[in-house]
């Protein structure tokens, strides 16, 4: 189990703080039977991540990447990367690469020949 705590501080207007803990199952089992002590417990690990608020429009994506497991966010991340590549292609920011990857200079040449 991995609980999360989102924390904001009125003195820190630039970041949201995310605390997470990795709780091993044996640790949680002790709540069911406090008298039973397992031979060894894996450590409880607490991590702190500072997430900038800005750009505000992408805050949701940054928090989603932290608060959801990788097996869930990988398809979302791949979709987001595809969207970003399309936006870059539309802006002409990509460069030509072997293998048919759309690039900025290629795109401008291609679009110019189509007009």
What can you see in these coordinates?
With 115 residues, the chain is an alpha+beta fold. Helix content is 43%, strand content 22%. It has 4 helices and 3 strands. Strands 1-2-3 form a 3-stranded antiparallel beta sheet, covered by helices on one side.
Largest sheet: 3 strands, antiparallel
- Low-pLDDT stretches are 96-115
Please state the structural category: alpha+beta
Number of helices: 4
Strand content: 15-25%
Q: How helical, in percent, are the residues? A: 40-55%
Order of helices and strands: EEHEHHH
Q: Strand arrangement, largest sheet? A: 1-2-3
Rg over CA atoms? 23 Å
What is the terminal-to-terminal distance?
57 Å
Number of domains: 2
Oligomerization state: single chain
Shape: elongated
Overall average residue pLDDT = 75
How many β-strand runs? 3
What's the layout of helices and strands?
Elements lengths: L3 E6 L2 E11 L2 H8 L12 E8 L6 H9 L2 H22 L12 H11 L1
Antiparallel strand pairs: 1-2, 2-3
